[in-house]
Each structure stands twice: as C-alpha cells, then as structure tokens.
Amino acid sequence: MNTRLLILAALIGAPFMCIGVYVEAKFPGVGQPWWTGVWGLIYITGWLAGMEAMRRLRLAGNDPLGKWAVVLVMIALFLADISNVWQLVAPDYKPSLFWALDIFWPVSHVLMLLVGIATVRAKVLGPYQCWLPVVMGLWFPLTMVLSRTPIVLHFSNIYSLIAWTSMALILWQRARMQKIDSNLLLHAFHL
User: Fold this and answer.
1) Is residue 190 part of a domain?
2) pLDDT band at 180 (very low <50, low <70, confident <90, very high)
3) Dist CA 134 CA 103 (whole Å)
4) Over the stretch 116-141, which tens digit does the pLDDT of each residue have?
C-alpha cells in the first residue's frame, strides 16, 4: 500500500476514539459492543496504518530501539484490532481470550512511550515534532491519573483527538518532504 494512503487512513482514524466515546456518552443506546467495535476498529486500524507509515519514513530511527519499538506497537495494535472485530462478530461472547486481546488497547498506548523515546533519540523530526509520540504514549497514564475526576472524559478524548491527528499531519508533511527530496535527487542524476 502507498505510504500516502496509509497516512490518509491514519488521518481518518485519528478522531474516532473521540467520536465513538462522545456518541456513546450522548446516545446511551448506541453504546453497544458492536458500536465500540466499529469506532475502535477505525481508530486502531488508522493508528496501525500511521505506525506503518512511521516505520517506512524511519522517523523512530534505524537503531534496534527505533525499529523494534514501532514493530511492538504494531503487533499490539493488531491484537487490539482482533478484539474490535470480535465485538462486531460476537458482541455478547466474551471469554478470557477476548479480554486477553482487549488489554492490548492500553498496552499499545503505553508502548508508544518507547516509540517516543526512539523518535526523540533519532532526531529525524524537528525539535518539537519529535516529542509528539511521547505525548501519545502519555495518553493512557494521564487518563488513569484523571480517571476519578469529572474531566477525564473530555480530557482523554480531546487529548487523543489532538495528538493522533497531529501525528497523522506530521506523517503527511514528512512523506511530502521525502518525496520532494527524492524527486530532487532523481532530477540531479538526470542532468
């Protein structure tokens, strides 16, 4: 799949946790497992596509930490997506295996801290952009800290919306820059 299509999928998926949770809060009847499966599948699949774009663009670096951190997040996201499909196919059947897969939602969020560390170390992104994967990795710990407060719903949703959308936009920008760089290189060799 084309890197730009992966980034487009990341951009489309980025707001879906926010959308899904707010729809469930506003319309309690919609808060069924199938709906959670739908918005979860779009969100996680978009994030997975964004991680593949990040891997292709080598934004976390070429060292073992950069390569493996991204791969670990992608594996966790894939496993989390299985639980989303499960909710669509068998929304009322939730044995231990379902919960074992579903735990990869928060695990993937925490693993983003490794991607963040690798991205900061790689110094491929700008001095502020390189910290965005760290911000993404802090989503789950901050949400847990605020879980007993009245602002948790709004904080975690807006945080997610801004962080994941910003990352997709950075990926888009980097893909464009790399295409421009490769076009300049190709042009230079044709002269």
Assistant:
1) no
2) low
3) 20
4) 999 999 999 988 999 999 999 999 99
Structural domain harbouring 72: 3-185
Question: Which single residue is written with the structure tokens 């663009």?
Answer: 57
Looking at the domain assignment, is residue 58 inside a domain?
yes
Which residues, at least 6 apart from 172, have a Cβ–Cβ distance to it below 8 Å?
A: 4, 7, 11
Domain-embedded: residue 130: yes
- What amino acid is encoded at 12 in this protein? I
Q: Is residue 160 part of a domain?
A: yes
| Main-chain phi, psi angles of 28, to 5 degrees | -55, -30
What is the number of structural domains in the chain?
1
- The upper half-sphere exposure of residue 100, i.e. CA atoms within 13 Å in the direction of its Cβ, equals 3
